[in-house]
Design goal:
The protein has about 400 residues and is mainly α. The chain has helices at about 10-20, 35-55, 55-80, 85-105, 110-115, 120-160, 180-210, 215-220, 225-270, 275-285, 290-305, 310-340, 345-360, 360-380, 385-390.
Length: about 400
């Protein structure tokens, strides 16, 4: 037989084959993407965001009424256990809440009235203090300007003669005058609108309490005849109810702790109307991040007005902010993690989104909304990625 000739191409092909057999091939995972479905989902999300922004007044009132009903439902249930009808129990609880609010406002009327009466004198003191601070700053700035002018003159005398300066033309724009009547009219309309919305929210909470489990049973019926679907719906509603009630209990505990700590600290410092400021700090602590900042600014101004010292103002504001930060960072974060089992980044992104959408009300309602979204996502197969992103 005639021997076969081995060419260089055959050797190269054999080498490639040997290397390919030595190194295993990396599998390529190709994920199918439904472009049309993705585009429709994005458009639906944008439409929902615009609808929520357009219907802000209605949706916010509805959510606040639902939260109040969740918070008061255990009291109504306890009254039902002692053989009281649901309607009577709901009426007693709502009247008790309104009476507690009225009595609380009435008990603090003296300190609140004192703060209001001190506003004119406080404004003059604050203006005088700011003027003194501005004059001291202007003195330093004037010295620096004088030194700069001397340096400029020395530079011009050392160099060539400067070109003659042209006269500058100043245009003065008169700002529109502030009219106290327009301000009071706008403020009174805003206060009347807020009072009307608060009354509507209380009526909504009363009717929700009166309905009891009616809406829950209707939602279970709407899921269809399948027993598994009804069980999942009942589990979702029970988990939402449990999470929201635990969250509201956490708010009650942390806000009461903030109010008590602020009252003790301000009384020790000697700040006037410490009780009223403590109640304001506890109420404003409901709004994450923004509420403690407003409290710190207001109490710092009150301290400056009373002590006429920026050091005491910074001390009071710093104490208020430190208390809110410590309790909000450790107690609130720990309790929220135990209740919702969510990561801090997801909670903060929720705060940013709902705050951008609804302002203060969005910041206030963001955590209950994200808790409900996480609970629903855990039980719906299509929403499992959302639950995974929000989880710990």
């Amino acid at each position: 037989m005639k021997p076969e000739l081995v060419t260089a191409n055959d050797v190269e092909a054999a080498g490639k084959l040997a290397s390919a057999s030595a190194v295993p091939a990396v599998p390529v995972i190709r994920m199918p993407v439904d472009a049309r479905g993705l585009a429709l989902a994005i458009l639906a999300a944008i439409a929902i965001v615009f609808a929520l922004q357009w219907a802000q007044a209605f949706v916010v009132s509805l959510l606040v009424g639902i939260l109040i009903a969740y918070m008061l439902n255990p009291l109504v249930s306890s009254l039902e256990r002692i053989r009281l009808p649901r309607a009577v129990a709901s009426l007693i609880v709502m009247l008790g809440v309104v009476a507690a609010l009225v009595l609380g406002a009435y008990s603090l009327r003296g300190q609140t009235q004192m703060i209001i009466e001190q506003l004119p004198a406080a404004t003059s003191k604050l203006s005088a203090g700011l003027a003194r601070l501005r004059s001291s700053q202007l003195g330093t700035v004037q010295k620096m300007q004088k030194a700069a002018t001397e340096v400029e003159k020395a530079t011009q005398s050392a160099g060539a003669p400067a070109a003659p300066k042209q006269a500058a033309t100043h245009v003065v724009v008169d700002d529109p005058a502030f009219k106290i009547g327009d301000f009071l009219w706008t403020s009174s309309k805003g206060a009347a609108s807020a009072m009307g919305q608060a009354v509507m929210v209380l009526f909504l909470a009363f009717f929700l309490l009166l309905a009891g489990d009616t809406f829950k049973r209707k939602l279970v019926r709407l899921t269809g005849p399948s027993l598994s679907s009804k069980k999942i719906t009942v589990q979702i509603l029970d988990d939402i109810n449990d999470s929201i009630q635990k969250y509201l209990f956490m708010l009650l505990v942390t806000n009461a702790l903030v109010g008590l700590t602020v009252w003790v600290a301000f009384a020790w410092i000697g700040l006037e109307n410490a009780g009223a400021w403590a109640v304001a700090a506890a109420l404003l602590h409901v709004v994450p991040y923004i509420g403690p900042g407003v409290t710190a600014v207001a109490t710092g101004m009150a301290a400056f007005i009373q002590f006429e010292s920026f050091t005491m103002a910074l001390l009071v504001a710093g104490v208020s902010m430190a208390i809110a930060t410590v309790i909000g960072t450790f107690v609130t974060t720990w309790m929220t993690g135990r209740i919702a089992k969510m990561n801090a980044a997801g909670v903060f992104i929720s705060l940013l989104f709902w705050g951008w959408l609804w302002g203060i009300w969005g910041v206030l309602l963001s955590i209950p909304i994200i808790v409900i979204v996480k609970v629903v996502s855990q039980h719906v197969e299509q929403l499992q990625p959302v639950a995974e992103l929000l989880g710990e």
